[in-house]
Amino acid sequence: MIVAGTALGGLLLSGCDRLSQAPQALKFIDKAEGVTLGVQRLVLSGQPLAKEFKVSDISPTFKPNGTFTPSDPAYLALQQNGFADWRLSVSGLVNRPLSLSLDQLRALPNRTQITRHDCVEGWSAIAQWTGPQLGGLLHAAGLQPHARYVVFRCADNLGGPGDGGKYYESIDLFDAFHPQTILAHTMNNQPLAVPHGAPIRLRVERQLGYKQAKYVMAIEVTDRLNHIGGGHGGFWEDRGYEWYAGI
Questions:
Q1: What is the DSSP string of 48-106?
Q2: Which 8-state DSSP code applies to residue 16?
């Protein structure tokens, strides 16, 4: 179901280590992942929706995972004043870079959807999410011809190499423009709580939970991923997870 809001003025415009290090093995693995992604893209070419549920299906508890409260001082300062000073930037390969406050984001046309979150740890939960479609923001920013990926920069720091351990994720334009890909600011009719990613989190409903980036601070449109973090497109992907986590 879709709930329309007031448009923002002017914005409508594991294997063995030796095997994993062998160049030929890596080339084969990369090719296999590409085939898998290609097959899924073919099956999903009509942009089918992930299953949506009824209000009565919403889980009584939805446990947070990953970071519960970012330790970043800048984030904590924003949290103290209710994110009144928080702004989401949209930059990179766009013609019209954006900088939106939380109020401006909430004022955009919103989509509300009740979907199931599937965690790679083996648990799932159903919740209702509300927020603007990512595709609308990208359309407003105006993508440049070489744009291919959308990268989400986050406030939480899980430690380790690559961007100082800051969490990040990425998706391609196919998923970015899917109607159920939203920047959720509301969960179960309440402002998104900090353990669940306040002020906004990504919802890309046809992929596993680690793709649903929390604490999103900035969006970057790019033509490649190998220059960001560890070069694999996401915090967990840099540590061996698949980049395309389709379900």
A1: PPPP---GGGS-S-----S-SS---HHHHHHHHTTTTT-EEEEEESBSS-EEEEHHHHH
A2: -
Q: Based on the number of CB atoms within 10 Å of its own CB, is 134 exposed (0-12), middle (13-18) or buried (19 or more)?
A: buried
3 state SS of 228: coil
- b/e map 67-86, b = 16+ CB within 10 Å: beebebeebeebbeeebeeb
| Distance from C-alpha of 188 to C-alpha of 192, rounded to nearest angstrom | 9
Q: What SS3 class is residue 10?
A: coil
pLDDT at 247: 81
Contact 93, 146 (CB under 8 A): yes
Identify the CA nearest to 168 among candidates 238, 84, 64, 87: 238
The residues near 222 (Cβ < 8 Å, ≥ 6 apart) are 92, 93, 147, 148, 149, 150, 151, 228
Dist CA 47 CA 45 (whole Å): 5
The residues of the chain scoring below 50 in pLDDT are 1-35, 37, 39-40, 42-43
Nearest alpha-carbon partner for 152 in 64, 68, 225: 225
What does the pLDDT read at residue 31? 45
Q: What is the C-alpha separation between 220 and 203, in angstroms, rounded?
A: 16
* Six-digit token string for 148: 């291919």
Question: Rounded CA gap, 87 and 66, in Å?
Answer: 23
The 10s digit of each residue's pLDDT in 79-138 is 999 999 999 999 999 999 999 999 999 999 999 999 999 999 999 999 999 999 999 999
